[in-house]
Structure to design on (184 residues):
């Protein structure tokens, strides 16, 4: 093996080993929460199932939606300050009222009736996934470097995996090598 190839091999192994150590915990968090997020539509424990409304165009006002959500069993909604966001699902005939304390109330936006009220864990899982749950700076100073290290691990892993194949292909005799030439 040539000297430059040995140096690349040495640094690939060293970077691969230490990169795995430094990024292990953040990558474990990203992988586990990513798996949960892939399943969020499959399990109501992660995110409540969407219930279809009566259909049609939205005909209730936002204040009527707030009143319906405030009357729902479970969440404690005292006004607009309790609401994180509204998600209007025109095709499903309902509006999701998502509170700051992680409740989701689904309101039929034609009748104003409550379709469903349940805890929504997917937003918490997503904030763990991108690192913002820990601190706003964790996204850029912990999870981004861990992602870059993971990319480096992938590159060095592919290199270290492929190195034996590259070395074997260089050692194989080429076709006709070692055989007597026809005219000799």
């Amino acid at each position: 093996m040539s000297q430059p190839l040995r140096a690349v091999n040495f640094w690939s192994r060293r970077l691969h080993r230490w990169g795995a150590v430094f990024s292990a915990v953040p990558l474990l968090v990203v992988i586990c929460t990513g798996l949960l997020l892939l399943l969020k539509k499959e399990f109501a424990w992660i995110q409540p199932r969407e219930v279809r409304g009566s259909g049609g165009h939205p005909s209730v006002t936002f204040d009527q939606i707030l009143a319906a959500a405030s009357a729902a069993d479970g969440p404690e909604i005292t006004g607009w300050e309790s609401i994180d966001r509204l998600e209007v699902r025109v095709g499903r005939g309902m509006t999701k009222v998502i509170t700051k304390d992680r409740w989701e109330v689904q309101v039929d936006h034609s009748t104003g009736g409550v379709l469903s009220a349940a805890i929504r864990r997917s937003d918490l899982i997503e904030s763990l996934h991108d690192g913002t749950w820990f601190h706003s700076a964790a996204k850029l100073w912990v999870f981004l470097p861990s992602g870059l290290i993971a990319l480096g691990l992938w590159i060095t892993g592919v290199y270290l995996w492929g190195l034996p194949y590259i070395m074997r292909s260089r050692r194989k005799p080429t076709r006709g090598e070692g055989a007597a030439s026809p005219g000799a």
